[in-house]
Specification:
With 265 residues, this protein is α/β, with parallel strands linked by helices. It has nine helices and 14 strands. Strand 7 and strand 8 form a beta hairpin. The structure holds zinc ion (ZN) (2 copies).
């Protein structure tokens, strides 16, 4: 599999995953020109995308879906539980949506959705398998539940949320108290420390690569997220660049292109 995050964070999310026989996007939360250019920068023609998989109905995940899917006649997959919302929000591409309530295939990619606790109508993460090569995308969750852990354990690569630094969130003057409580709740987002504890568990299942994702512009920074996660892991004798590689996603710029082949780790 070839994988690349194209954008991540509250301004828009999109992750590209390519198998031998299928090319998918998980969420299209940026405008079409941005996605078109980001795909182009990794040598992918937007018209060759087979499917868009939606995690949940928040704007930063679906903003660009309508235009993209109309332009390229792309199939869309979403969970049954958000069908009523998408019926209205994606009314121009209604006919292109397939609703799922369990795992499914897009070409040679086996897609295993799993529920995560988030303050949307319903939110899923995705485990994507091509043979025994496994990649998971797990963002927008208030807590790293046993369900999420069981769903993504053994993934070679995980895009995992590191949304906020707890102290920066509490002292940030730009958010009202209710919003801070929402972000910090079990149905909001994962903090850097939550993310670090999740990685500690995942490393023991064989995960060797984690891309810190959905990093807040206001209450976190890329450097702080990596430093916090790395220092927690070191305190548990999990050494970055030895036992685990930490990578990053960005708000307005694509991330690293990863290749995960069966038994590549
Ligand atoms: Zn989001
Ligand atoms: Zn969300």
């Amino acid at each position: 599999m070839r994988i690349c995050n194209l954008a991540s964070g509250s301004d828009g999310n999109c992750t590209y995953i390519e198998g031998e026989k299928a090319r998918i996007l998980i969420d299209v939360g940026k405008p079409l020109p941005y996605i078109f250019n980001a795909l182009n920068s990794i040598g992918v023609d937007a018209s060759t995308i087979d499917a868009i998989l939606i995690t949940h109905e928040h704007t930063d995940h679906i903003k660009g879906v309508d235009k993209f899917a109309r332009t390229y006649n792309t199939c869309i997959y979403a969970h049954t539980y958000i069908s009523e919302i998408l019926f209205h929000q994606l009314k121009n591409v209604r006919e292109q949506i397939t609703y799922f309530d369990s795992d499914f295939f897009v070409g040679d990619l086996h897609i295993v959705p799993f529920p995560v606790p988030h303050d949307s109508k319903f939110c899923v993460g995705y485990r994507v398998e091509q043979g025994d090569a496994v990649v998971s995308v797990c963002t927008d969750l208030g807590s790293f539940t046993d369900t999420a852990f069981d769903a993504i354990k053994g993934s070679a690569l995980v895009y995992l949320e590191a949304n906020y630094d707890a102290e920066m969130l509490m002292s940030y003057p730009g958010y009202p108290p209710f919003l801070k409580r929402r972000i910090n709740s079990g149905h909001g987002h994962l903090s850097n420390n939550d993310c670090a504890r999740a990685i500690e568990k995942l490393v023991h299942t064989g995960t060797r690569l984690v891309a810190l994702s959905h990093i807040s512009k206001h209450t976190n920074s890329e450097n702080l997220a990596v430093a916090t996660v790395a220092s927690y892991l070191e305190s548990k004798n999990i050494i970055p660049n030895v036992n685990i590689r930490l990578d990053l996603t960005h708000h307005e710029q694509r991330g690293t292109i990863f290749r995960i082949t069966p038994n590549s780790f």
